[in-house]
Amino acid sequence: MKKSTKENYLQAVYRTVYYIEQHYNEELTLETLAKVSGFSKYHFHRIFFNIIGESLSTFIRRVRLSASTGKLVRGDSVTKVAQQSGYETPASFAKAFKDNFGCSPKAFSKQFSQRRETMIKVDIVEFETVEVLAVRKVGDYQESAKEAWEAIMSFAYAKKIKEKKNLMGKEARMFGIGYDDPKSISANELRYDACISYDDKSVKPEGEVVAKSIDGGKYLYHLHKGSYEGLKEKYAQMMSYLIENEIAVADKPTFEEYYNRDPRRTKPENLKTGIFIPVEGQKSNYKLF
């Protein structure tokens, strides 16, 4: 396969992947998704499977189930979550959920009903939408994040050398989006996007590099100082804070912003990471650009 043809396939499939993740609670027909991709419906599902490694229907089901966990944590009823996840009945949703996670939706929700005292500094911030270039990798977060950043950085440096486009200038921002809860989703299915902002729209995405947006709005924010290994505990504390203060989680992905220019050359104790969890119905303390 010619490189240009392969890159076209990657662009089409990942464009569809992001469309599914944004519209997972709607009816997603093969005709609709084929139109998004630009391929014939007779061939698209085979192309999708070849690149993503799982069938279109399996991927859609996994996205819907992954999104349902956050809604159960915030206390939504099983019936409501089933409807929003595209299932015809609560029973069919409960069966799919148990098959995937090993417990019923009610049992999963009950895990988070215990309130814990938290000692963490958080703020409600207003985040402005950012247009980014992103690379998706799937697998254990430690490995998938490394692979995604290597891919996006290779793209950025290639643009700098070949086209004199400096994507990693002083104004560039770096974000990581982990879509799935490692406690609920098997490690080999975890989805991670490495993202860099870009102002020069003459830069065109190629291959697995896709243009997308990180949605603006209100977020619960915490500045984590220290190694990335400490992020897991901060997420747990922030979720406890949300539950204790009865703050509703919005239906958008959680993400991180990395403030160190080159984390590889930064001592672990000097790393700074912003954690953003989307929320609803809250007044922001300040804007964060």
Please sum up the structure shown.
The protein is an alpha+beta fold and 289 residues long. Helix content is 42%, strand content 20%.
Report what the structure shows.
- This protein is an alpha+beta fold.
- It folds into two domains: 3-108, Arc Repressor Mutant, subunit A; 123-288, Multidrug-efflux Transporter 1 Regulator Bmrr, Chain A (Alpha-Beta Barrel), CATH 3.20.80.
- The protein is built from nine helices and ten strands.
- The chain has helices at 3-22, 30-37, 41-52, 56-73, 78-84, 90-101, 105-110, 141-163, 231-244; strands at 123-127, 130-138, 174-178, 191-197, 209-214, 217-225, 248-249, 255-258, 272-280, 286-288.
- Strands 1, 2, 3, 4, 5, 6, 7, 8, 9 and 10 form a ten-stranded mixed beta sheet that branches.
- The longest helix has 23 residues, at 141-163.
Helix content: 40-55%
- How many domains make up the 3D coordinates? 2
Q: Give the full name of the CATH homologous superfamily of the largest domain.
A: Regulatory factor, effector binding domain
Unreliable residue runs: none
Largest sheet: 10 strands, mixed
C-alpha termini separation: 42 Å
How many whole angstroms does the radius of gyration measure? 19 Å
Q: Please write the CATH class name of the largest domain.
A: Alpha Beta
Tally the beta strands.
10
